[in-house]
Specification:
By secondary structure, the protein is α/β, with parallel strands linked by helices. Helix content is 40%, strand content 22%. The chain folds into 2 domains: 138 residues, Rossmann fold (3-Layer(aba) Sandwich); 123 residues, 3-Layer(aba) Sandwich (Rossmann fold), CATH 3.40.50.620. It starts with a strand and ends with a strand. 36% of the residues are buried. Belongs to the universal stress protein A family.
């Protein structure tokens, strides 16, 4: 982990994401970038300077955003981190994807509005990144009691498509000095006998022979219920889900399950899109 991106709208949930990202960056000695998207009524980049006063509220909003971004950068630098900030106009949801590729971010931390769901510019971008991002996205809704990560839950159907991406979680766990708990959720619609489920997890772990993991199976009516129940009963700090937009439940957890877990759980959730 070398370069972390934090999209922000300066809301309370975005501030919580910033706190979490700073702690991760400090442990990883990673560079951290702050990005704010601002929607303007005109093409602000090409707007003549003398016409800016015709859009007083927009100009005021831009000034506020620049000030807040500068504060975030200074705070990161005071922690000994390399930091940059970016204010992007008009280009909307796809801009985060482009920014991530251009600046080679390898981890994204975003806030979510909790019960409000995916609302506003930040919310809609959180939803998009959960579905489409090629790098891990950590979504956080509530401020944890502390920022220490001891137990990471990786919930999956343990298809071979997820094996390579799992290395990112192994590296993240080493960085945090955390234990990884593997979880297979048995549901009426997607049921495996115990022997088959254990064999799948053991095969999944073969490329990682030098690590110790806890393997678990839980029966539940839905994947979401099983994940949340296990998390609450086992002091999980972060949930990790691997999704694939086209695979559905037969191979990996679907984007809809991931979004439901984010909405229903109070814990931070990391998504890996395959």
């Amino acid at each position: 982990m070398k370069n972390i991106l934090v999209p922000t709208d300066f809301s309370e949930c975005a501030q919580i994401a910033t706190e979490f990202a700073l702690e991760i960056a400090k442990k990883a000695n990673a560079e951290i970038h702050f990005l704010h998207l601002i929607m303007t009524p005109v093409d602000w980049v090409n707007l003549p300077k003398e016409q800016e006063d015709n859009f007083h509220e927009t100009k005021k909003e831009i000034g506020y955003a620049k000030g807040e971004l500068a504060k975030l950068t200074r705070r990161a630098e005071k922690m000994g981190l390399k930091s940059k900030h970016f204010l992007v106009f008009d280009k909307g949801r796809e801009e985060i994807d482009l920014h991530t590729k251009h600046h080679k971010h390898d981890f994204i931390v975003m806030g979510s509005n909790g019960e409000k769901g995916y609302k506003g510019v930040l919310g809609s971008n959180t939803q998009r990144l959960v579905r489409k991002s090629n790098v891990p996205v950590l979504v956080i809704k509530q401020k944890p009691e502390n920022f220490e990560i001891k137990n990471i839950l990786f919930a999956s159907t343990f298809n071979k498509d997820a094996i390579q991406s799992f290395k990112q979680i192994v590296d993240f766990a080493k960085l945090m000095k955390a234990q990884i708990h593997l979880l297979n959720v048995n549901t009426p619609a997607n049921f495996k006998e115990t022997g088959e489920a254990i064999a799948n997890m053991e095969a999944f772990l073969k490329p990682y022979p030098n690590n110790t993991y806890q393997t678990n199976i839980i029966n539940a009516l839905t994947e979401e219920r099983g994940i949340n129940k296990f998390s609450h009963e086992n002091e999980i700090d972060v949930i990790v889900l691997a999704t694939h937009g086209k695979s559905g439940l037969k191979k990996l957890l679907s984007p809809s399950i991931t979004e439901n877990v984010i909405n229903e759980s109070d814990l931070p959730v990391i998504t890996l899109h395959l």
